[in-house]
What does this fold into?
Amino acid sequence: MIRVTNRYNVVLITIDALRYDHCGFNGYARDTTPRMNFLAQKAAVFDNVYATGPCTPPSFCSMFTATFPFDKGGYSPLPAGKVTIAEVMAQHGYQTAGFTSNPQNSHFFNYNKGFQKFFDSLGGSSKNPITRRVLAHFESSGKRSNALYNRLQGLRIFPKIVQSSLKRLFYRFFLGRSIIYYMPARGITRRAAKWLFYHYFSITPQDSAARKPFFLWMHYMDTHDPFIPKWHHLAKLNPHFNKKEFDYVKRFPEYTDVLKLNDRKRSLIDLYDAELRAEDDRIGFFIRKFRRNGVFENTVFIITSDHGEEFNEHGDYGHRAHLHRELLHVPFMIFGGPVERGEIPGLVAGTRTGHLFSLGQLAPTILDMVGIQPPRSFDMKSMIPALANASKEAGAATATTAIPNTTTDTTTRFPRQHVMACTLHKGIQTRFNELNDRTIKRMVSIQDLDYKYILDMEAGNGVLYDLKSDPSERVDVSA
It folds into this structure.
């Protein structure tokens, strides 16, 4: 671990379902991220960071606990025995605050562990007694949100668009009007900024006892479907978008499912990119507050995503049980005053690295930057030593991982530094052109910079891609 003397503040901004290749600072032609493009000029930008799963539950479990999704009790809900980055930071004197509106990383799934302030927008503090009772039932019974999803998304008798409508009706009328399902980035940022003002900005630097360093996490959901951007964001990217269709999407969010059914890829990408533009605006607004309050200089910022989004590259939309590049390849940058001053070994402002990293290395990397020893439960390594040439190995871990093969009752062992992603979807696997497929899908992705192998553990077979000649992962070369 690289030791540092300063107790930097840490801000982690995660953007749900954000693809690496839809960011301007990664070469995307559209003007989706002008503010992040500016920040990237003085950031350390990572070009080969991959999520450990194609959706929020497995990915965030690894991000916060530095463990593989299948290990140590699984990933949904977050097992009590898995130590989180927030718990470690709090134990070392940091103020901790988390703000999210994704049900999958809410307090239902134990993601409030270690956060002294936690907002998840699901109505856990609602004044409505019926709301509190229903939510308490999901928590106390151990079913949590899975009970809701399995009932409304796992019904074979309804196609996806009907299930989606039923789920929203349930939230609105049964759990109470106080429920905010996906709060826009504006609302999440406003709450985080308010917390910062009262817990840090308004406290004088001389009052060191009260002005403790902080670890703050914000999770944006705008780029998660349904995509319902503001018109002014959409018009900046495609002023010719059908206004009538836009008004219909705004009024009936489930209409985005109709666009998927009809393979309206271009319209969906327009809406998605416009949502990203809105998130980019909020990030610029948030960073300006740090500069104006003189806190930017002692703060390390990380911007990344939990997974990507598929737009029919491999026969589907959204982010289900697939492990292809469009779902696993995520943007990643680290910036801030300490990076610009060169105080963190290996992180050089204005540079890019092509090292292969797992997103599960996030938590130990954060601890490394602030000089905190990672707990023994963390299985993955910090990225910093590889960047600082302190180690030639940039892998996630050096041991092997034992993954049960439920088809043959044998054990398949892989070098853990090459295992990038795992996923398990059970009972809620959905396609947009048919009823639900209730079969289990357990898959593992193994890769380096040259090749990638995706193993379907239920079928007992896999596909191999030559990433140098086929970065889009279209041609199986295993034969």
